[in-house]
């Protein structure tokens, strides 16, 4: 959806998972170090958490796909407009494709942690693929747009591709707390930056529009991206510190 809600929705999803992971992974790390005093540290307990997380991820992805397709100005599952002889609402279809891969990742989480049909690392592989597809779609999402619009979306790719690489490394270094915390910080960054994109490109409440070709706006947005990441790191550090303490 090319509006404020269309950016707030995925932003909320990423913020939710980033904040949840910033609690879950330090908790798992603390339980590995202090097995005797950790009341939540059983393998079965965390396995159930992974299954629930997969279900929530799949539900969120389904909500995102339905929202993209069936909003009043959406494509309603129509990919090609035969009357006008052109593709129909490709932006919504791209967003739906992004949600589709996250939904597949959620299903893979459920399969991985409820059966022995696939290797355990498949959940990380599918999540890495989903994040990579998100970045791949967004890279070709803003061609031909105004300068600020392109720049603010391309900044998002640093968080997306960084997250994809981090999750891919987790396939081989599963349980590495450094990689897990790094992934948390990038996921929170994605979520907050989606909200920032919405506020810049579609100011709610009829606020003043940003000058798309003003270089000072581009400089400020770049600096603002760094502030977002600093805030993300502080959130992860705070959650880690509280849980370890």
TrEMBL record:
Membrane-protein topology: Multi-pass membrane protein
Keywords, alphabetical: Membrane, Transmembrane, Transmembrane helix
Domain of life: Eukaryota
Compartmental location: Membrane
Assigned GO CC terms: membrane
Pfam families, per the entry: DUF716
TM region(s), chain numbering: 6-27, 125-142, 154-173, 185-206, 218-242
Family according to the record: Belongs to the TMEM45 family.
The protein's name in its UniProt record: Transmembrane protein 45B
Species for this entry: Pyxicephalus adspersus (African bullfrog)
